Amino acid sequence: MQPSAPSPSSAWHQWWQTEGPVFFLYARQQTRCEADAKDVLQDSLIESWRKSGNRLPDKAMVFATIRRRAIDLGRSIDRRQRREEEVANNQTGWFSPSFGDADAHDHMTRVIAKLPPDLREVLILRIWGDMTFPAIAQMTEIPVATATSRYRYAIERLRENLTEWQP
After folding, report:
1. pLDDT tens, N- to C-terminus, the chain (167 residues)
2. Which pLDDT does position 14 carry in this prediction?
3. Residue 165: what are its φ and ψ, rounded to 5°?
4. What is the dihedral sign for C-alpha 150, 152, 153, 157?
5. Burial code of 93-119, b = ≥16 C-beta within 10 A, e = fewer?
6. Secondary structure of residue 52 in the 3-state scheme
7. 84, CA 20 to 30 Å: which among 53, 90, 110, 135?
8. Which pLDDT belongs to residue 94?
9. What is the pTM of this model?
10. What percent helix, strand, coil does the chain show, rounded to 5?
């Protein structure tokens, strides 16, 4: 009795067991993340299988297909990212959003937090602390003119950051 030839599915399974990890390693090196590598590898194996006439594909063909598909995927991701950034940057707005008091407070808090510490300190002491410039100067140990100019610079920066935002 002659030994039977391995079935196509067992040959495929054996081939995949020996070659699969190497193909995946190569796909992972060619892509940006593991999920992309898995997708590229699966698509490459299917394409290679079909090109080889439903027989075990040549390793070189699989590697070349992985490389080509990874490049295509990378270009596709880059194009999509550029389009999304372009849309986000050029968004003119179709309507004016309505902001409530909480939104205005949150926005103002973020804008003030972005100010340099020396400007922020004088601004807070003047507006919320209701202190005079001489009192601020004495407390922070700076000249009165410096306290005044820091307040003026802080107000200018707030205006710059708030001109586009209207509650």
Report:
1. 555 555 667 888 898 899 999 999 999 999 999 999 999 999 999 999 999 998 899 988 999 999 999 999 999 999 999 988 887 777 655 445 555 666 777 777 788 888 898 998 898 889 888 889 999 999 889 999 999 999 999 999 888 877 665 55
2. 92
3. -95, 120
4. positive
5. eeeeeeeeeeeeeeeeeeebeebeeeb
6. coil
7. 110
8. 46
9. 0.50
10. 75, 0, 25
DSSP assignment letter at 102: H
DSSP collapsed to 3 states, 60-84: HHHHHHHHHHHHHHHHHHHHHHHHH
CB-CB contact of 163 with 124 (8 Å): no
Can you read off the two tokens belonging to residue 116? 């340099």
As a residue count, the chain comes to 167
Helices (H), the chain: 8-30, 34-51, 59-89, 101-113, 117-127, 133-140, 144-162
Q: In 10 A of CB 30, how many CB atoms? A: 21
Cα(79)–Cα(68) distance, rounded to whole angstroms? 17
> Could you please report the per-residue DSSP string of 121-133?
HHHHHHHTS---H
The structure tokens listed for 93 are: 């707005």
Torsion of CA 22, 28, 30, 32, to 10 degrees: 180
